[in-house]
Amino acid sequence: MKAKSVVSAAVMLYALGGPLGTMASAGSYKTIENSSPQEIVSGMGTKAVRGMANTTTGWLEFPKQIYTTYTEDGAARGIFVGPLKGLGMTIVRTVSGIGELATFFVAYPGFYDPYFSPPFVWQKE
Question: Which among 39, 94, 107, 125 could bridge 58 via Cys, Cβ 3.0 to 4.6 Å?
């Protein structure tokens, strides 16, 4: 009975990546401490550019949400719900762009990750 439990535990560890795989992946997250200066500056630059892009193109969420709602949910929802979603997402994207631009030097959230997905208005959700 004990051998069966040990074999079951070993199979589960192997299926989950094994103890070595989990230890190796635990340290693979990017942080300021384990990144090179080039990676840090690149992350800052990416966040600043994303902030500028979202600040200046946030208004494109309005027609995008109308179109997306129209094609996915039908004409009635596209006409009535699409503009409301577009107005909300315009505000969210523009404000998040301003926030990313103002805090591009801070490695938050994650390692200069975007505040939400998709990072740019022209990318598919």
Answer: 94
